[in-house]
Amino acid sequence: MSPCSIQTLQPSPQHQQQRQYVVGYALTSKKVKSFLQPKLEGLARNNGISFVPIDHNRPLSDQGPFDVVLHKMTGREWRQILEEYRQIHPKVLVLDPPDAIKRLQNRQSMLQCVADMNLSEFCGKVGVPRQLVIQRDASSIPDFVAKAGLRLPLVAKPLVNDGSAKSHELSIAYDRFSLQKLEPPLVLQEFVNHGGVLFKVFIVGEAIKVVRRFSLPNVTKRDLLSNAGVYRFPRVSCAAASADDADLDPSVAGMMFYHVTVFEGTQFIESFLLGTYSKDYPKNFVKDWIWENAWV
Ligand SMILES: Nc1ncnc2c1ncn2[C@@H]1O[C@H](COP(=O)(O)OP(=O)(O)OP(=O)(O)O)[C@@H](O)[C@H]1O
Ligand SMILES: O=P(O)(O)O[C@H]1[C@H](O)[C@H](O)[C@H](OP(=O)(O)O)[C@@H](OP(=O)(O)O)[C@@H]1O
Predict the structure, then answer these.
(1) Which atom of ligand 2 is nearest to the CA of 168?
(2) pLDDT (average), residues 18-22
(3) Beta-carbon contacts of residue 179 (< 8 Å; ≥ 6 apart)
C-alpha cells in the first residue's frame, strides 16, 4: 500500500464546509466485501458521506443518527424492524423499502412491468423470454412444459430472487423429462440465443451505466440433439466477465440487450427505442431486447 493510502487523505477545504451524511448499512459480509470497497469509502468520505454498519444486536433506533439506511437484507423480522424504524424516523431515507422491492424479488412479477409495456417497435423490440412458473410438484413439470409449448432448451431459475446465493442457482435443461429433477418453486424460461454477449444497464436516477458482459453461448440444434439432462451453470455475466474491451465479431457485438437493473425503466427504455439515448453502444444493439431484471 503506498504511503499515501486513501485513509490518510484529508477532505479538501471545500469539503470541510460540506454537510456530512451518515449512511447506515445492513449488508451481508459478502455484499460488504463486494460493495464497500475502500475506493468507494474514500470517495464517499471526500464528499462528506460516511458508511456506518448497523448492529443487529442493538435496536435500530438506538443507533445512528442516520441520513440514509442502505440494506440488502430479507426476512420478516428485518422487514418489521425497518418498517417500525421508518415510522419513528420518517426523514431518514430508507433505500429499497421492503414493500417497494417485493415484486422484484420474484422472477415472475419482476418481468410483469416489462411484459406490460406497450412500446412501439422503433429501432428494436422489447420482450421477455417465454416462461412458465412452477410452484410445486416437479413430477408434473414435463407435462406443464408440453402443454405450454415451451421450446427446449430451458433455463431454470429459482422463483425467489432475494440476492441469496441460492437465488442465483440457475440450470439449463436440454430435455423435458430431466425437468423432474428440478426443485420448485421456479421459473422455466426458453433459452434465447444471443451470441454469448449481453448488456447490463445500471440506473439510479439520472445516472446510467451500460456494461457489456460475456454470457452463455448460443445453443445450436446439434447441441440440443447431442445433450440431455439438466446442468447447473455458474454465474456467467458478473463483473469479472466484462466484454467491454473484447474484440467481438460485429454480428455479435450488440445482438442482445439483456439484464437491466433499472430504477426508472420506462424513461430508459423509451430513450433507447426513440434513439435519443446518447451512450457509447451503437443503436443497432437495440435489436432484440430480452429483459430479465428490469427493475422499474
Ligand atoms: N432466457 C435466457 N436465455 C439465454 N440466456 C439466459 C437466459 N436467462 C439467463 N440467461 C443467462 O444466465 C445468466 C444469469 O441469468 P439471470 O441474470 O437471470 O440470473 P441472475 O442470478 O440474476 O444473474 P446475475 O449473476 O447477473 O445476478 C445471464 O447473464 C445469461 O447469461
Ligand atoms: O454484474 P454484477 O456482478 O454487478 O451483477 C450483480 C447483480 O447486478 C446484483 O447486484 C447482484 O446482487 P444480488 O441481487 O444482491 O445478488 C450481484 O450479486 P453479488 O452476490 O455478487 O452481490 C451481482 O454481482
Answers:
(1) 16
(2) 87
(3) 138, 141, 142, 145, 154, 156, 173, 188, 230
